[in-house]
Amino acid sequence: MAFQQELTRWYLANKRNLPWRHTQDPYVIWLSEIILQQTRVEQGLPYFNRFLEAYPAVSDFAAASETEILKLWQGLGYYSRGRNMLFTARQIMDLYDGVFPVSYKDLIKLKGVGEYTAAAISSFSSGEAKAVLDGNVFRVLARYFGISTPINSTAGKKQFSELAQSLIDQEDPALYNQAIMEFGALQCKPKSPDCEVCPLVLSCYAKNNKLIPVLPVKLKTVKVKTRYINYFICEQDNTVLVNKRILEDIWQHLYDFPRIETAAEAAVNHEEFTQEVKQKFGADVIIRPLMEMKHLLTHQIIYVQFFALDNYIVNFNMSTEANWVTWPDLDQLPQPKILTKFINFYFNK
């Protein structure tokens, strides 16, 4: 038990004062866990506070519209999380009469709730002895116990899951889970961990065998994709043409401008590109370059160009998701972060 005791002792002396650690309300814990997926605490905390203020109970969240949720989510990325949360909140109202479940077996059935999130909510809200296993925990266990099995392999997931569960403190699983996650986030960091002041340094396999930079091992399975998106600004009587993204792609259900995606960077003097624009907006359209930007997603690099159009034609029969909105109304709609940056430039140039 020395490993667990050292972790909890370190945690009690070094833990951050975070609002979701002062409650056992499963709704509040769920809110924090989903918002913090793929997100640093510093970035996610303002969103957590805004969501909790706007929707203090799961019934309030369930009553919101998708547009309201996505607007509040704007800038946080991974927008499917927000859509899944709305589905889940409504699911809880229908299946559980608005009472947020606290058992692992019920939580794991909810949309957007995986094994880690179900374990976190159940242990933090009801003291269920389910071990959490996130990136921080993988790293601590791999380094301390010297496990080289890739964490994203089938064998690795099984090995780490069994080890994590065997280490859980049956008397206070919430404290232990918080401790090991916080230890990975603050002490046993991915790069340049401060091993000299680590309470586990004497028995850490990775430190004693100079494997800190090597562990944990992760298989590289996802290739980064490069995309080129060209947006067109069509203005008319203080309104601008916008498009709601309905396909299963990045930024689903967010609003952006009419666009053409190309295989390479587009240029106004490139005949193939200009012909495609003319097919979409009429033979007499005039194209004016405005701005170029680069946007990074987890597995995508997106090069974006913005063009202003004059003398264009809009065929609404071919663009059923297109609509005219005023610039102030567009500000109230959820939109990709890169569009917000462009709009801020557009009105302050």
Structure description:
The protein has about 350 residues and is an alpha+beta fold. The chain contains 15 helices and 8 strands. The chain has 2 domains: about 1-210, Endonuclease III, domain 1 (Orthogonal Bundle), CATH 1.10.340.30; about 225-345, Nucleoside Triphosphate Pyrophosphohydrolase, CATH 3.90.79. The strands form 2 sheets. The protein has a 4-stranded mixed sheet, with helices on one face. Strands 2, 3, 4 and 8 form a 4-stranded antiparallel sheet that branches. A hairpin with a 3-residue loop joins strand 6 and strand 7. Helix 9 (about 135-145) packs across helix 11.
- The arrangement of helices and strands along the chain is HHHHHHHHHHHHEEEEEHEEEHH
Structural class: alpha+beta
Shape call: elongated
Which CATH architecture of the largest domain? Orthogonal Bundle
The total of beta strands comes to: 8
In what range is the share of β-strand residues?
A: 5-15%
User: Biggest sheet, strands in spatial order?
Assistant: 5-1-7-6
Instruction: Report the helical percentage.
Output: 40-55%
Rg, Å, rounded: 24 Å
CATH topology of the largest domain: Endonuclease III, domain 1
GO molecular function: 4 iron, 4 sulfur cluster binding; 8-oxo-7,8-dihydroguanine DNA N-glycosylase activity; adenine/guanine mispair binding; metal ion binding; oxidized purine DNA binding; purine-specific mismatch base pair DNA N-glycosylase activity
Family: Belongs to the Nth/MutY family.
Enzyme class: hydrolase
Keywords: 4Fe-4S, DNA damage, DNA repair, Glycosidase, Hydrolase, Iron, Iron-sulfur, Metal-binding
